[in-house]
Amino acid sequence: MSMPLTNQQAGEMSEAEWQTRCDLAALYRIVNHFGWTDLLQTHMSARVPGEPNTFLINRLGDMFDEICASNLVKMDLDGHVIGDPARFNKAGFTIHSGIYKARPDANCIMHTHTRAGAGVSLLRNALRPISQDALHVIDDVVYHEYGIPATQEECDALGQSCLKGTSVVLLNHGLLTFGPTIHGAFERLYLLERACEVELIARTLNEPPVMIAEHIVQHAAVRMKKMRSSDEFGMLDWQALLRLINRSGEDYRR
Question: Is residue 177 part of a domain?
């Protein structure tokens, strides 16, 4: 539940935009809680409801535990800041605008440089059907070649890669997920991160891992595809995490 708009905010944005700002700010605090940060180098965004050519993203220079609803930057897909001037991550704009253009169904995008994600990104087709965690994502995983950051070529190439799936391993780089909802994008990233962690653990062992039978892998893929198609995907986990950060007293709804 978000805080009510001030008189100034009410004159500048819709209730739907304010709610999305609160939810995106909460997402940054949740990511910070999990330790999925890399100083100022990663970013999450959300499309503004009713304004498909605009999105919200973090202001360059803010740590994730400093981000709140009112200091998010509103941008259009051409790179123009709407409202108060603010710095933003240019490579971040490339990533987010490219996906929003290519995927009209994407309403939230998350990008991280976690150790597990960056580790898996060093190997092509690294994720294998060796764990329950992997079965949650493996049918949806896309591997995207490393490109030149902040270029139009990379913007277009990433958009094309994201036509193939919503859980993306950016080779030599990190992880990215997107979805029709903020909680759905988070659920994808959590499951992908878990799969990467277990994969890296397996690669430190001195024995080959047990492979899950192909018919079970296929059954899991059908199940997960159905789950991801629902707007309720990830909602229970999201609500539980909101309660967690709200209990901590974090003031992100301002």
Answer: yes
Rounded Cα distance, 179 and 166, in Å: 7
Domain presence at residue 254: no
The residue with tokens 């190997």 is 123
Cβ-contact 149, 175 below 8 angstroms: no
For the chain, the domain total comes to 1
- Asked if residue 183 is part of any domain, the answer here is yes
Query: What b/e readout covers 74-84, taking b as 16+ CB neighbours within 10 angstroms?
Result: bbebeeebeee
Q: Give the position of tokens 């004159």.
A: 11
Low-confidence residues of the chain, pLDDT below 50?
A: 5, 7-8, 10
State the DSSP H helix or E strand holding residue 154, giving kind and residue range, or none if neither. helix 152-161
Separation CA 178–CA 165 (nearest Å): 9
H or E segment and range at residue 75: strand 73-76
Residue 182: which CATH number?
3.40.225.10
pTM greater than 0.70 (yes/no):
yes
Q: Output the pLDDT for position 10.
A: 47
Q: Dump pLDDT digits (tens) for 157-215.
A: 999 999 999 999 999 999 999 999 999 999 999 999 999 999 999 999 999 999 999 99
- Expressed as residue numbers, the domain containing 218 is 13-247
Q: Give CA torsion, residues 141, 143, 149, 152, to 10 deg.
A: -90
Pairing status of strand 51-57 against strand 73-76: antiparallel
Residues 155/97, Cβ–Cβ less than 8 Å:
yes
Tell me if 145 is assigned to some domain. Answer: yes
- CA distance between the termini of the chain: 12
CA 81 – CA 88 distance, rounded (Å) = 9
φ/ψ of 227, rounded to 5, equals -65, -45
